[in-house]
Design a protein that fits this description.
5 strands; Arc Repressor Mutant, subunit A; 163 residues; three-stranded mixed sheet; 6 helices; alpha+beta; two-stranded antiparallel ribbon
Length: 163
């Protein structure tokens, strides 16, 4: 795993973080001739607002409050598009979604989930063959998707006194 810090667990210019991510996704959509509809764009913006995962119904509630639709398929279709094209990930442990921290790179994401504040950081295992790949290869199994999640305590919560 790389030693790079991730924005979820460090102070950073969040406006620049969001703007940069949106720019990369828009460029990727243009290059792949994908349509980033207003609802898809807004769902991605919602996911980027905080470095926390959001459930589909939380997203739907926000879309509804903004008069962008109130039926579950609206949120699920947008999330499906974002996940399918690598702009977001589904966290199985939380049954929630998070914007991809590296939407322009082919990568194997690992999610660090803080059990106290629910912050989520995305790290990258790196490019080479992992132990999982070797195990799958030895069994003749073709991996199509990986979701690696680790639960623990983020740096901010480690520093905070217990309530």
């Amino acid at each position: 795993m790389t030693g790079a810090k991730t924005p979820a667990f460090e102070r950073h210019n969040h406006n620049s973080c969001v703007a940069g991510a949106m720019h990369r996704v828009q460029e990727s959509c243009e290059a792949q001739n994908l349509r980033l509809t207003p609802v898809r764009k807004r769902v991605l913006e919602l996911l980027l607002e905080e470095h926390r995962a959001m459930g589909a119904y939380d997203i739907l509630e926000r879309l509804s409050a903004e008069n962008m639709g109130s039926q579950p398929p609206i949120a699920y279709r947008a999330l499906d598009f974002l996940v399918t094209h690598g702009f977001a990930h589904k966290l199985q442990h939380l049954n929630a979604f998070i914007a991809c921290g590296h939407p322009h790179d082919a990568h194997i994401p690992v999610f660090m989930i803080c059990r106290d504040c629910n912050s989520v950081a995305e790290a990258d295992i790196g490019g080479g063959m992992t132990a999982i790949d070797r195990a799958a290869d030895s069994l003749g199994f073709k991996i199509e998707r990986r979701v690696i999640e680790a639960e623990g305590i983020c740096p901010a919560c480690q520093e905070s006194p217990a309530p």
